[in-house]
Amino acid sequence: MSKHIQKHDMGSNVKIKDLDYNEILQQAVAEIRTNRTLVAKQINSAANSMYWNLGKLLSEKKLEEGYGSGVVKQLSVDLKSEFPDMGLSPRNLWNMKRFYERYYQQNTKLLQSVAVLPWGHNLLLLDKIKTIEEVMFYANEAVVKGWSRDLLLNAIKMDSYSRVTNQLKTHNFDTALPEISAEYANEVFKSSYNLGFLGITEPVKELELEKRLIAKIRAFVLELGKGFSFIGNQYRLEYNNKEYFVDMLFFHRGLRSLVAIELKIGSFKAEYVGKMNLYLSLLDKLEKGESENQSIGIILCADKDHLDVEIALQDINKPIGVAEYQLLLPKEELQTLVLNEIRTTENEGEFE
Predict the structure, then answer these.
(1) Residue 321: how many CB atoms within 10 A of its CB?
(2) What are the b/e assignments for 181-202, b being 16+ CB within 10 Å?
(3) Coil, strand or helix: which one is 279?
(4) Cα-based distances in Å from 21 to 1, 13, 188
(5) In whole angstroms, how large is the CA radius of gyration of the chain?
(6) What is the pTM of this model?
(7) Nearest alpha carbon to residue 328 among 318, 320, 319, 338
(8) 47 to 42, 152, 213: CA distances (angstroms)
């Protein structure tokens, strides 16, 4: 007999199954998280709007560091006396001027991205990033994935922009999906994923990698990107008296497709495509809803060769992509560099 949770409503007993209650709980948590995010964005947007206008004022008055330093120092003193808790140091006033001058001629999409970022994130982008294209990439990633300041710093130090923009796409979406779906899938799926949040420092087996990903599934979903919902791991499929198990199964709301992910600890092998092709056929036959699009497969491996992937996918009609993963955090030089940056920032503080 299944367990029930007793609830009282207007004096009568209402029984709610565990499954139903879990759904209520998950929806409530999602509602709170969504609104907390929206509130944070509204607060950031309001603060950045104020910083923008102060920066515009300094820029239009043509104040420059050097001959204008006295004016800005006095302005800081007077503003601090009126608003002591707002971080209106001379350094930060100059940062507001930099903020305005960097973006005032840029497109609306970029302005919307930087507007909702916390001020500390924007300072990182001002200090560390040179080109507008890179700013657009990091700002968008930070917004979509909810990166903290430390995660943004980590991504910049790893040069995530170059890795994403320079890598070849290794999939057959253009031939296996309708044109509109293929374009969307090209945007959704990446050729490389960073699993550094797992903190793996020594070789692991595939089941251990899967176990760790499940334990940190929220972080993994954030890395996959917007629109993914986790369904389960070792997802069982039965056909013709045989059992098959998909490592990880997701659903993507925008694509309206089931997404199967197979984890491989070594380099890509052509045989992985045949196995994924079978899984996708079974998912389409047994699990796909009437209103849903065909299932998509991602083979996530430690390393891949573009030509090997290309020939393996050549005659496959199911949409399959091959992506690499990185376990970057254990690299001692990177860790030391990032930690030193974090400590320096913490010691200096966001504002003077």
Answers:
(1) 26
(2) bbebbeebbbbebbbbbbeeee
(3) helix
(4) 16, 15, 32
(5) 25
(6) 0.51
(7) 338
(8) 9, 20, 36
Q: Cα separation of 28 and 71, whole Å?
A: 51
Two tokens, residue 112: 């919307």
Q: In angstroms, rounded to a whole number, what is the distance separating the alpha carbons of residues 295 and 287?
A: 9
Question: What domains can you pick out in the chain, each with its CATH number?
Answer: 29-105 (no CATH), 164-326 (3.40.1350.10)
Residue-by-residue DSSP string for 12-27 = EEEEEEHHHHHHHHHH
CA atoms within 13 A on the CB side of 44: 19
The mean pLDDT values, 10 residues at a time, for the chain of 352 residues are 41 54 65 58 75 87 76 86 83 90 88 88 92 91 84 86 70 84 80 79 80 87 87 94 95 94 90 96 95 94 87 92 74 48 51 43
- Tally of helices (H runs) and strands (E runs) in the chain: 15, 8
Q: How far is CA 129 from CA 123, 272, 336, in A?
A: 10, 39, 20
pLDDT in tens, 289-329: 999 999 999 999 888 888 889 899 988 999 999 998 877 54
Q: What share of the chain is helix, strand, coil (3-state, %, to 5)?
A: 55, 20, 25
8 A C-beta contact, residue 232 and residue 268 = no
